Amino acid sequence: AQTVTQSQPEMSVQEAETVTLSCTYDTSENNYYLFWYKQPPSRQMILVIRQEAYKQQNATENRFSVNFQKAAKSFSLKISDSQLGDTAMYFCASTTGANSKLTFGKGITLSVRP
Amino acid sequence: DTGVSQNPRHKITKRGQNVTFRCDPISEHNRLYWYRQTLGQGPEFLTYFQNEAQLEKSRLLSDRFSAERPKGSFSTLEIQRTEQGDSAMYLCASLGVEGLPEANYGYTFGSGTRLTVV
């Protein structure tokens, strides 16, 4: 069974600054995938970034990057140059196996202050 | 195709009533997933289909819940004899499966159906 843990319930950051959201996970699988999803208020969940466990290089998508520490089972998300539109709940998630079902953490509420 | 569509967006029902939700996935996606999200929590897996076949159901899914995907296109999730504990957001997601590892990319979520049982 997989577990995903997000221990910070909420964070706040000033616009244009950098923030890091933490996530740890546990799995017995060797081949798995990790994701960060963004859920704005009353809007649908969208994929921010994904990481394949077999890749050592950390994934980046524009202002978003991850710090993937496989041995420590840690997968943090760094948001650079924070924008007001980044205000949302962020979920860390993992998937493995043929069924591809996602296991989510509890999420973190990020507020970007003007 | 504009994405995954879920209807209705909101549903308020009295305890004991039956409700049905619909999900229309991206047309070329052959996998469809249902998740439930309660306030302050991450989504939890309920069930999934590959084409019309329901391949897995979570142990969270009681006998009052049933899901179908009759022609491998849209799916319905029915809850019978609703209880207040069923109040949640029900999310649908679709995924195109070309073969692993590509199967683990590209989930598209719908906007969800928010159920309130009073």
Order of helices and strands of chain A: EEEEEEEEEEEE
Instruction: Measure the end-to-end span of chain B.
Output: 35 Å
Percentage beta strand of chain A: over 45%
Mean pLDDT across all residues of chain A, rounded? 93
Number of strands of chain A: 12
Would you write up a description of this structure?
- The complex is a heterodimer of chains A (114) and B (118).
- Chain A is mostly beta strands.
- Chain A contains no helices and twelve strands.
- Chain A has strands spanning 3-5, 10-14, 19-21, 24-26, 32-39, 46-52, 60-61, 64-69, 74-79, 88-96, 102-104, 108-113.
- In chain A, the strands form three sheets. In chain A, strands 2, 5, 6, 10, 11 and 12 form a six-stranded mixed beta sheet that branches.
- The mean pLDDT of chain A is 93.
- Chain B has 118 residues and is mainly beta.
- Chain B is built from no helices and eleven strands.
- In chain B, the strands form two sheets. In chain B, strands 2, 4, 5, 6, 9, 10 and 11 form a seven-stranded mixed beta sheet that branches. Chain B has a four-stranded antiparallel beta sheet with strand order 1-3-8-7, with no helix packed on it.
- In chain B, strand 7 and strand 8 (75-79) form a beta hairpin.
- Chain B starts with a strand and ends with a strand.
- Chain A binds chain B through residues 4, 6, 31, 33, 37, 43-47, 50, 52, 91, 93, 95, 98-107, and chain B through 3-4, 31, 33, 35, 40-45, 48, 55-56, 91, 93, 95, 97, 100-101, 103-107, 109-112.
Give a quick precis of the structure.
Chain A is mainly beta and 114 residues long. Chain A is 0% helix and 54% strand.
Secondary structure topology:
The complex is a heterodimer of chains A (114) and B (118).
Chain A: E1 3-5, E2 10-14, E3 19-21, E4 24-26, E5 32-39, E6 46-52, E7 60-61, E8 64-69, E9 74-79, E10 88-96, E11 102-104, E12 108-113
Parallel strand pairs in A: 2-12
Antiparallel strand pairs in A: 1-4, 3-9, 5-6, 5-10, 7-8, 8-9, 10-11, 10-12
Chain B: E1 5-7, E2 10-13, E3 19-24, E4 31-37, E5 44-50, E6 53-57, E7 65-68, E8 75-79, E9 88-95, E10 108-109, E11 113-117
Parallel strand pairs in B: 2-11
Antiparallel strand pairs in B: 1-3, 3-8, 4-5, 4-9, 5-6, 7-8, 9-10, 9-11
